[in-house]
Amino acid sequence: MTTMAQWVAGARPRTLPAAVVPVAAGTGVAIGEGGFVWWAALAALFVALVLQIGVNYANDYSDGVKGTDDGRVGPMRLVGSKAATPKAVLTAALGCFAAAAVVGLALVVATSAWWMLAFGALSILAAWFYTGGSRPYGYRALGELSVFFFFGLVAVIGTAYVQVGWSWTSVWVAVPVGLLAMALLVVNNLRDRQTDEPAGKRTLAVVLGDRRTRFLYAACLLVPFACLVPLVFSHPFAALGLLALPLAVRPVREVMNGLQGRALIATLQQTGRLQIVFGLLFAIGLSVNLA
User: Fold this and answer.
1) How far apart are CA 32 and CA 27, in angstroms?
2) Spatial distance between the Cα atoms of 123 and 146, rounded to a whole number of angstroms
3) What rounded mean pLDDT belongs to the chain?
4) pLDDT tens-digit series, residues 88-107
5) Residue 258: which region, alpha, beta or left (left: phi > 0; alpha: psi -120 to 50)?
6) Suppose 287 and one of 26, 28, 191, 207 were both cysteines; which one would form an S-S bond, judging by CB atoms 3.0 to 4.6 Å apart?
7) 226/179 Cα distance (integer angstroms)
8) The 3-state secondary structure of 66-130, one letter per residue
9) How far, in Å, are 154, 161, 284 from residue 281 at the CA level?
10) Which of 181, 238, 222 is nearest to 48 (CA)?
11) Distance from C-alpha of 137 to C-alpha of 185, rounded to nearest angstrom
12) pLDDT of 22-44, one tens digit each?
């Protein structure tokens, strides 16, 4: 029987900052513009978290049954390690998607944000077809683009919208948030590049190759800080996000110096730490309204 610790490990908690940070940033925008709605923010956080966990379980299931997790150097996978049956992991993934759909629908109805129904449905489909189906887009170098779109643009703009309505600030804020979410997948795929390619999994790291993937990772970590510069003219305290810059030094240095394989698991953890610290400082800064 699969233990609770194994289910938690299978949920890949180190990737959860990708769900927390966009909601925090979108809520920071809403607070700064005087439209904070606590229950809408909590509902958005719940949807983001269970979608992220659902993605992880769905990825575990699909890669496990296809055999692409054989010889994996990263954290344990439930199906690949035979710690859980494919059916159990699939049920967990579908349960997460169902929970996200129910709460998301309730949020849409309560806020009359009907346009978000389409993006909610698209988010669930994207979560499944990342590695699921006969032509998964995660095997065709589109995973990072999807992460930027859903855990950057959709999550930040959507979170702000259900609280304060349309905000151009949320569009700009979504860019650095999306790039840091991308960084998690870039370093994850860099770690698995040498086993993904023989398994037929053509991630962006496989397509770009080792050197260019490392430069992409560095850009995903450093460009978000440059994005703060024009924003400080309208939201001066957004500069608080710069305090997280020292946390980018070590992972960028290690990746650019050629760290690979299992050693990149620690880099993934460092990336998640940077993302959550940057995101929370950024959100706090955005929430300060000097008007």
Assistant:
1) 9
2) 9
3) 91
4) 999 999 999 999 999 999 99
5) left
6) 28
7) 12
8) HCCCCCCCCCCCCCCCCCCCHHHHHHHHHHHHHHHHHHHHHHHHHHCCCCHHHHHHHHHHHHHHC
9) 21, 21, 5
10) 181
11) 14
12) 999 999 999 999 889 999 999 99
Quote the tokens at residue 32: 């700064």
The residue type found at 176 is P
Is the distance from CB of 100 to CB of 155 less than 8 angstroms? no
Nearest to 143 by CA among 101, 193, 107, 104: 193
CA–CA distance, 35 with 163 (Å, rounded to integer):
6
Angstrom CA distances, 200 to 135, 145, 228, stand at 12, 20, 39
Pair 144, 185: CB distance under 8 Å? yes
**Residue with token string 């992972």:** 251
